[in-house]
């Protein structure tokens, strides 16, 4: 009962904390709220008209929603890149950034689930995804495993930081024997959620663009580049606008993770390009469409070549220690890498897998305004959730939110 009482007080104090702030903070939250409202209105159109309101068809049945879902699974998994050094390798420099990374993982997972609901057409079909009562082909269906690992990872990323916050809220030291086992579990679970998501595509033999052994490892490499890159940008913003100071050494060490992951991701990209184009077969048609276009259909060319250009430039800059050590350059390069991988794991991965169709027809996919608005609304929701979690967590860490015992 005492724990519930403390938790209730933390929720009340947290609510007061997130409803007060500077003018810039209120403007930020107002903008996010407006974007979410626009997204909700667009989603109401989709509910009324069905998925015909989107650019998806029976030929290209996965689009902007699943593209963002796939990318955000990687962002969520990347939180382990802070947890691993901080708690497993006992690197003190990382511990100040762990709660931020965990909050980012929670926000990313909430967005993942929202994109799945949007892609299903409406929440009325959501019961199919619920274990026991849902229509699962367990254990053969990879979608079953994906639902389980995503919700399990969300539970882990909520409970561990919540325990640490509740203890610090009371002025106590968290017991490592309680949360360390969960930390180790989260390390393996983070790898699992991205590998299972990769298996969703990799196991489709009729889609040769996805059906290759390198897809899973490349998912991990790109995730561990984009996720920490986003964390660096978020830490830079927090350092600028709050009293929660992250030392330069923390950001520079995270940049090393980004650098190595980006280099591995680029090597894997070169390997895939060699496989597709050195001795091309009819299975290479999807890759040809993506990188060079087919029969005058070139909708993805600007996207993929922008992605590759940003990826190469960012990786080269990160490789040089002197350039990487300049934080202003680092922030710009991390933004470039994040955008590059978002494109690569979005349009560059999902859409080409459906082209050409079973009869050789090329039906290009272009997202509609409804899809774009819903997508922006979900991203705004994620930013809104993260802002609330970060503001509350930082206030507890700084000692501004303290449990007051009532006599």
TrEMBL record:
Predominant localisation class: membrane
Spans through the membrane: 25-45, 65-87, 99-118, 147-166, 178-201, 221-242, 254-274, 300-320, 329-355, 375-396
Superkingdom per UniProt: Bacteria
Compartments in which it is found: Cell membrane
Membrane topology value: Multi-pass membrane protein
InterPro entries: DsrP-like, NrfD-like
Keywords, comma-separated and alphabetical: Cell membrane, Membrane, Transmembrane, Transmembrane helix
Keyword Glycoprotein: no
Family to which the UniProt record says this protein belongs: Belongs to the NrfD family.
UniProt name for this protein: Sulfate reduction electron transfer complex DsrMKJOP subunit DsrP
Organism field: Lutibacter aestuarii
């Amino acid at each position: 009962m005492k724990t519930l009482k403390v938790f209730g007080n933390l929720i009340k104090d947290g609510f007061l904390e997130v409803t007060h702030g500077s003018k810039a903070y209120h403007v930020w939250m107002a903008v996010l709220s407006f974007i979410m409202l626009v997204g909700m209105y667009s989603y109401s159109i989709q509910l009324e008209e069905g998925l015909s309101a989107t650019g998806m068809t029976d030929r290209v049945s996965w689009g902007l929603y699943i593209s963002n879902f796939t990318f955000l699974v990687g962002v969520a998994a990347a939180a382990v890149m802070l947890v691993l050094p901080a708690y497993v390798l006992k690197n003190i420099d990382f511990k100040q950034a762990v709660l931020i990374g965990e909050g980012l993982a929670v926000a990313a997972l909430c967005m993942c689930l929202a994109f799945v609901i949007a892609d299903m057409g409406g929440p009325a079909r959501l019961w199919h995804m619920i274990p026991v009562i849902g229509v699962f082909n367990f254990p053969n269906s990879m979608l079953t495993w994906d639902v389980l690992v995503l919700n399990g990872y969300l539970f882990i990323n909520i409970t561990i930081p919540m325990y640490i916050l509740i203890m610090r809220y009371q002025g106590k030291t968290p017991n490592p024997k309680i949360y360390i086992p969960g930390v180790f579990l989260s390390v393996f679970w983070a790898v699992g959620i991205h590998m299972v998501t990769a298996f969703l595509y990799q196991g489709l033999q009729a889609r040769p663009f996805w059906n290759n052994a390198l897809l899973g490892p490349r998912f991990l490499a790109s995730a561990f580049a984009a996720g920490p890159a986003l964390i660096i940008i978020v830490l830079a913003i927090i350092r600028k606008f709050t009293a929660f100071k992250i030392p330069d050494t923390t950001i520079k060490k995270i940049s090393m993770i980004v650098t190595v992951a980006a280099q591995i991701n680029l090597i894997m990209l070169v390997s895939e390009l060699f496989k597709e184009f050195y001795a091309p077969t009819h299975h290479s048609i999807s890759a040809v469409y993506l990188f060079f276009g087919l029969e005058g259909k070139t909708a993805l060319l600007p996207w993929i070549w922008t992605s590759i250009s940003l990826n190469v430039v960012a990786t080269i800059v990160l490789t040089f220690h002197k350039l990487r050590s300049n934080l202003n350059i680092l922030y710009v390069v991390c933004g470039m890498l994040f955008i590059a991988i978002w494109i690569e794991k979005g349009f560059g991965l999902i859409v080409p897998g459906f082209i050409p169709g079973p009869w050789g027809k090329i039906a290009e996919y272009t997202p509609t305004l409804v899809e774009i608005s819903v997508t922006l609304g979900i991203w705004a929701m994620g930013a809104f959730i993260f802002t609330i979690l970060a503001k509350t967590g930082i206030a507890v860490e700084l000692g501004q939110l303290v449990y007051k015992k009532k006599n």
